[in-house]
Amino acid sequence: MGAKQKAILIIAAFAAAVYAIVILTDACNSPQPNLLITGIVTDAKTGQPIVGATVSDDEYGPKPYRSAITDSSGKYSYFTWMEEHTIVAQAVGYKPQRKMLKTSFSEKEKEKVLDFALERE
User: Fold this and answer.
1) pLDDT < 50 positions in the chain
2) What pTM value is reported for the model?
3) What ranges do the domains of the chain cover?
């Protein structure tokens, strides 16, 4: 490999590293939640929507943690941060369910759908 090719590879690697740092810093330091989480919470056995379930960031971010209550259709939505973290759904009489929120920083996602099927206690 020639000196010119090595220089090009070094420059490309440096540019990729700087890009990754900028994207991660922007996402991690965002003062306002920037990702809309939506979904539906249902009973795992019957498939029926669960009204009044709470879906929230599982001890992530500043208190009070970001959250929403499901409506009459079992649907919820709220804004959270784009970093990967755990989301928990819970309702009276059901076991809590946790899911990892996985995001793609390079795609600049605006919305993520997370559905939950809760089992009775």
Assistant:
1) 18, 20, 22-27
2) 0.72
3) 1-30, 31-118
